[in-house]
Amino acid sequence: MLTSFFQLYKNAYTGLSRNSWYLSIVMLINRSGTMVVPYMSIYCIQQLHFTVIQAGIIMAFFGAGAISGSFIGGKLTDKIGFYDLQVGALLSGGMFFIIVGYLHSFYILCGGVFVLSFCNESVRPANSTAIAHYSTPENKTRSYSLNRLAVNLGWAFGAGLGGFIAAINYHLLFWVDGTTNIFAALMLLRLMPRANILTGIKKVNKAIKSASAYRDGTYLLFILFTTLFSICFFQFFIMEPVFYKIEWHFNERLIGSLMALNGLMIVAVEMVLIHNLEGKRNGIIYIYLGVALAAVDFVMLNWLPPGLIAGIAIVIVITIAEMLSMPFMNAFWISRTSENNRGQYAALYSMSWSAAQILAPLIGGFVINYGGFRMLWWGLACLCTASATGFYFLYRYTSQKELS
Fold this sequence. Notes:
Elements: H1 2-13, H2 18-31, H3 36-47, H4 52-80, H5 82-100, H6 106-121, H7 123-133, H8 140-168, H9 171-191, H10 194-200, H11 217-233, H12 235-238, H13 240-246, H14 252-277, H15 283-303, H16 308-335, H17 342-403
Helix pairs in contact: 1-14, 2-8, 2-9, 3-4, 4-5, 4-6, 4-7, 4-17, 5-6, 5-7, 5-9, 7-17, 8-14, 8-16, 11-17, 14-16, 15-16, 15-17
């Protein structure tokens, strides 16, 4: 029985390329310092004495920088390649994390957060394109899951440790986040030397015209439904910690532990889950089920009584929803790409999440201010239901195309 258990895990991790592992190690280092974003709203409200709406606006500037960085990052990935862009984005993002920690004026902080996010998020299209380059059609979903595992393992460590650091000194969060970014760039240079990478990448004939992601109707619908879902999902990191602090009176350490539970569950379960699901059915059906489950999670926030058990149950449900949906979202966009338009598709996918980073704090801040957390959770449940419905019809459409 124990042998079968270990064999299950071994099979889930077998067959991935060495460079896929290296990219995941770099992301693990990078995300181990993820401490600023989950505590930014609390930091703005409690340390800088901004209002909830002002905190939401600052997070919206973070989202605006992210969508701009994703767009430019996708363009540059197709022009200069994924390697140089990742190194540059990690180095510049690291420096700006440290700088932003010294900005205390509302308007200056808005500008600083925008530049920080622009640099930091431009790495996403490049990283996604690199993963696609080093994966095969048979293991592409697992390759992205491995990368997500690294991100979430880093998130579990960073969010958990961040709660303890925030309880001591919020300013230290910016230094830790910045230095891990810089260290990740140095590790990328060490593990995957630039000369080796450039000689290993096939030259793409730029004269060949490829389909544009911005003219792919099916993909644009997919992006719309993804954006609706991600607006809801980001509240888990933006407004849910504020809810736990203000309404349920959890301390920062407990909030950090709940955030860490999300990452630990993904590390323990996702690769095995994806190994057993990949290729069995149209991946969009798993996306649909995950998004529908997220709607249930937001209902739970209103129905369950305050307490540790309720907090743990809510994290478990949203994590299962995440594990079912996000790996197959990555697999869907990569399945529609070629070598010379992959940056476009990666950028548009990253931009959908970045757009949600703009909308999520704005929606969350205004709804909380005028209707309270209860109205926010009901609204997000409805939005997730709309997204799940869209994915279901997209599943029916793509399934019919596969049969025809």
